[in-house]
Amino acid sequence: MELLEQRIKEEGIIIDGHVLKVDRFLNHQIDPILMDAIGEAFTERFKEAGITKIVTLESSGIAPAVMAGLKLGVPVIFARKKPSLTLGKGSYTAVVRSYTKEETNKIYLSADFINANDRILIIDDFLAKGEAVMGLIDLVKQADATISGIGIVIEKSFQDGRKRLDQLGYPIYSLARIASLSETGVEFLQE
């Protein structure tokens, strides 16, 4: 997605040659115009997949997921990183290792909002090692729902997350695929 790649080049900050900071438009401050375009791109790709719900992880996946949900006309469910009294007794749990925070967390998804009849689109902000998406896949499988696709805003293709997901056979669509990060800038995969 050209608009997203342009924003990454202009405003992304590379930290230690492997972390891309995009908090000016995606995961701290959110650009609603860019999110609208992201939602449209995911909708174009998955509009024929019969999606009934979108699942994401709090908090950075919520904005792109909501925009895709708005355009697809389906609810968005986000997995929580901390348990809540409102989750009730019926919830699914998975363990996720955060690449940027260097910590492991349990994530939670209420069983009230997802069931075996659902066709799920998983959306996440970043794909690096694939831990967050693997955790979301685990939650969806616990509900016996069908995974109809995975949408990633920014993929770091030089890490092994995409390879892990490809082995599972789900349709994956990444809006920006980064080939490399360095002090001189960002290089994108040309497809």
From TrEMBL:
Main location per the UniProt record: cytoplasm
Recorded name of the encoding gene: xpt
Glycosyltransferase keyword on record: yes
Domain of life where this protein originates: Bacteria
InterPro entries: PRTase-like, PRTase_dom, Pur/Pyrimidine_PRTase, Xanthine_PRibTrfase
SUPFAM superfamilies, sorted: PRTase-like (SSF53271)
Gene3D superfamilies cross-referenced by the UniProt entry: 3.40.50.2020
GO molecular function, one term: xanthine phosphoribosyltransferase activity
UniProt-recorded name of the protein: Xanthine phosphoribosyltransferase
